[in-house]
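#dry-run=false #mode=assembly
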Amino acid sequence: MMDPAISERTARLRTYAVALLITGLIFATAFYASNYFNERRVADIRAAQDDISTDILSIETQFDLLQERSCNDVAENTILPSALSSLGNQLSYMEAQGGNVAEVTRLKRLYSLLEIKDYLLMKQLSTKCKLKPVFVLYFYSNKGDCTDCQKQGYVLTALAQKYPQLRIYSFDYNLDVSALQTLIGVDNVENTLPALVINGTPHYGLQMIPDIEKILPQLATLKKATSTATSTR
Amino acid sequence: MTTVTYVLLFISLYFEVFLLVSFLERNLVRRVKKIIPQLFPTTAIVVPCFNEQKGIAATLESLLRLEYPHDKLEIIVVDDGSSDRTLEIARTFTNDSRVRVFAKDNGGKHTAMNYALAHTSAELIGCLDADSIVDSQALKRIANVFNNPRVAAVTPGIHTKETTTILQHMQKVEYHLSLFNRFMLAALGSAYITPGPFSIFRTSVIRELGGWKHGHSTEDMEMALRIQESGHLIANCPTAIVHTSTPLTFRRLFKQRVRWTYGFIRNAADYRHMVGSRRYGNLGLLILPTSLLSILTGIYFFVRILFEFAQQSYNTYTQYSVTNALPMPHFDIFYVNTSAMWVLGWLAVGLILVLISAGSWIGTGSKQLPKGTPLFIFFYCFLVPLWLATALFRATFKLGVRWR
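#status=ok
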């Protein structure tokens, strides 16, 4: 227990300065720690993208060697849809956090390119190897001009959980990537979002699970999940 | 929005750090303990009461147990127009020569204190609310602080009387934090409250200042500010222990805290010339401005957290409405929030824990945190803004508050 406290009414500027210095240091440490963890996240995403990029290059190479390899070998080594969607979720989270905008945008552009490459490769594989992968291209905007995009994201997440083999590729419609703009042009996707391109046909507005199941009867051929969870934007 | 949040976080953290630095500075300086002979100035303890039949007997019994010379102590009960058995119970104590009982028409606590002031010639005058019990050594310890002729008032170490409900356990933590704050404010020459439970005053100063005023139903704050304004000192003696009752229900707690906050805002407005003035040292430069700002800060953070919670709930509802399934809870270290704001928020919580522990040390000699600390940190802080906002609203429109 302490002795009584009595003091004259003074203000010691030294105490004010020391407290200011310590508070400043606490703030600097908090910002440094936050930045450090964000950098770690960016590094994780970059590493995952590198892995996927290498995998795609590997599949492409295998694809070129198809004459000497069986289709089964190639099909078994394709990128899992969950790997791409998990990366997409991580990027969405980083984007929502708001820090390191330039780096996150760069990673997002690279992610979009990887998705397009995977999409094209899977299309080629399905033709050559008689595979029947089921694709959905999803175009969204997070500029605040798409009120149903969040809902569409939830629907597609639930759909991906229901059908783990379904390949959903999500694209930020406004992202400045020439390959993405070409894809938008090729599929004639208008700026009426959310938009889903299913079997080459764009569908605009919010599509619920039964709507998509109706548009995409091939979904019935996919195995339904028991517990695997994937998600996408 | 983000800038405002960071600015308010900076000021809140700065205030906590300032108190902690001052506390450490005070304890790092080795002082030679002067041996002061125990003095026993004549003292009058006033028990102002209005319908206090439940607690009056225990309060008077504790006063009669005070280790203080009988001829130097008088206990003045002023019944402020009670309609219950308070007066009857108080009169049963008049067989002790130290006890005098007066009855008057109801006029509020300040009138009861002034009534006693007019009926005593004691050198010191104190107040003990009829819901409090004082430790037998308390007065002796406080009396010696008056050796310093500039001290006009001494506040005690206030502890909670009983802790049975969860709400009382949380209030106990708050009282430990208050032990630290009251001690440090006195150490910084900045005490702005002389609480009802056993604050003792130099009678001559109180007379010189004109006695107690209504003070927007918080005469203890008004008096403290008046003492500070006049240049006298207010000390704190944490070893003078007093136990006070805490509200059992949220309704009573809410009413009590609205009154306290309302009184603080209105009194601070009355003494606004002190706010920001270097003439009043730490009190004017930091304590009063930050305490006023803390009301807005509390409301701001509450609204912000509420807004984020509402947004999160809306998102979950939206997800459920379009998928008929709730999101599966899962843990992934990637998604752990490490934004600077969160880190700073947790640091502020950590600092509050340090201050509570320091309060426990000052008041009890043990640094152990009270049992209700987690509830205080994660739940009580959501209750506080409710009375802050109500008091601010009532003070802005001068709507007044009632004691009960």
